[in-house]
Amino acid sequence: MRTQPFIAAAAVLALAAQASAQTQTSAQTKYPATLEGHAILPAMTVIPAPADAPQELQISGRYAAPGNQRVDTPESVPATSALSDRAAPRPTGASFPLKGQPVQGMSGIRNLRDGTFLTLSDNGFGSKANSPDALLMFHVVKPDWKNGGVERVSTMFLSDPDRKVPFRIVNENTPRRYLTGGDFDPESIQPVGDALWFGDEFGPFLIKTDRTGKVLQVFETMVDGKVVRSPDHPSVAMPAVPGAVKFEVRRSKGFEGMAASPDGRFLYPLLEGPLLTASGEPEAKDGRRFLRILEFDVEKGQYTGKSFKYALEAPANSIGDFNLIDASSGLIIERDDTEGDSAQACLEGAPKPDCFNVPAKFKRIYKIDMGQADADGFVKKVGYIDLMDIDDPQKLARQGGKDGKLTFPFFTIENVDIIDGDRIVVGNDNNLPFSSGRALGKVDDNELILLKVTDLLRAK
After folding, report:
1. What is the pLDDT of residues 73-91, one digit of tens each?
2. Are 223 and 308 in contact (CB under 8 A)?
3. Is the pLDDT at 249 greater than 50, yes or no?
């Protein structure tokens, strides 16, 4: 009978520990963000394919129509925005196929500390099936914060002339073997030494290249000592008769963000969606879904077996990018699958093409601390800024500003990195030609914004 008080005390301590862990991973402290610059790369920034690429790559988006049926006539198919299953199709004002290769879709950014940024285009038009004529490329860009433009300083295309990719690629039997969105979906980029590292969604894979984009090695993804794959992994095949297909990563939920340690020793690729358990359910703890941040040893070329967990604020949320501030703390974009300003929301009733029936709501950047992870590996969420509530007292917004505020109402916001102890850069992926979140009937541009977020960066 004397043990009863101790049992009760233990239960109280356990509940307190659980509450503490939940508080640690879901801090709701909001910090201010002030606009200090706004630069725009026009949506229809299109460049020619390299001269030694197959001639058919001078046109892209042939397979982007519904059903992935080939369309050869440029600009013959009007594009609509219906990126979310809940959104009504709306005209974007753009048409495809495109004459050339689009620079669109900035998905991952790295500050080069000289006023320029390393960024990359994602797989092309959204899937493996519709992007075999979209070349994979990365760029150095220079935003002009004063005048509002973005200069494309240089572009490099990914290629595999030495046959390092361990599966058949779209341009298999060509001299340079340029990679396309039918091969990989790169969503993050990190320069380390003389190499570049890309996080891919399709495998998911890590891809190592030289500074020209030539593939040096491709790495499978290991979690808890086991290889995990998505349905787009080359080894995953449909069964001969209807039945289950085994995979651990949902389609389009592979590596989205990837940070690098300041010394370049480790990479921290972050999955966009939860891993699937043996039962097919997304990983969760106490009813709350979480994502894996894996640790990869660059020198050894292998995963360390260590991982962290990032708790989502809502089950359907995703992440957009991840970069470190220092050895343990970093910035993660967490967002929902909505787009458009609520001021132009549809009224009650059926969705219409001339309003946003699912306007943007949850678009945040969290500061996290891996050094304060709890016993289960959940990183601490220190606080956040709300990208739907950016202060603009100097009226620097070049589009989307109103009454001293700027919103960033895009479906996919996939670029964040630190500038200095006070400022960060943030950018959207405009999903050309399918995203229209800034204005009805107008395809989104690639926007970069410079934000002062001193309080967030100093928060503990």
Report:
1. 999 999 998 666 677 789 9
2. no
3. yes
Report residue 227 as tokens: 């290889």
Do 381 and 374 form a contact (C-beta atoms < 8 A)? no
Buried-state track 203-226, b at ≥16 Cβ within 10 A, e below 16: bbbbbbbeeebbbeebbebbbeee
Do residues 186 and 107 make contact, with C-beta atoms less than 8 angstroms apart? yes
Question: Which residues of 300-404 form beta strands (DSSP E)?
Answer: 302-311, 318-324, 329-335, 363-369, 380-386, 390-391, 401-402
| Alpha-carbon distance values, 159 to 53, 155, 207, 351, 373 (Å) | 10, 13, 11, 43, 39
3-state secondary structure 31-87: CCCEEEEEEEECCCCEECCCCCCCHHHHEECCCCCHHHCCCCCCCCEEEEECCCCCC
- Token look-up 């002009």 returns 144
Which of 384, 435, 387, 447 minimizes the C-alpha distance to 411?
Answer: 435
pLDDT at 85: 66
Q: What is the pLDDT of residue 8?
A: 42
Query: CATH fold of 31-458, please?
Result: Neuraminidase (2.120.10)
Q: How far is CA 437 from CA 86, 229, 278, 373, in A?
A: 14, 32, 37, 35
Amino acid 451: pLDDT: 99
Q: CA-CA distances (angstroms) from residue 421 to 26, 111, 305, 369, 451?
A: 24, 13, 32, 16, 11
Residue reference for tokens 């790169």: 186
CA atoms within 13 A on the CB side of 162: 11
Overall average pLDDT of the 7-20 stretch? 44
What is the residue extent of each domain of the chain? 31-458
Residue 116 or 8, more confident: 116
The neighbour count for residue 278, using CB atoms within 10 Å, is 7
Phi, psi dihedral angles at 361 (to 5 degrees): -130, -60
Mean pLDDT of all residues in 164-178: 98
Q: What gap in Å lies between CA 203 and CA 330, rounded to an integer?
A: 25
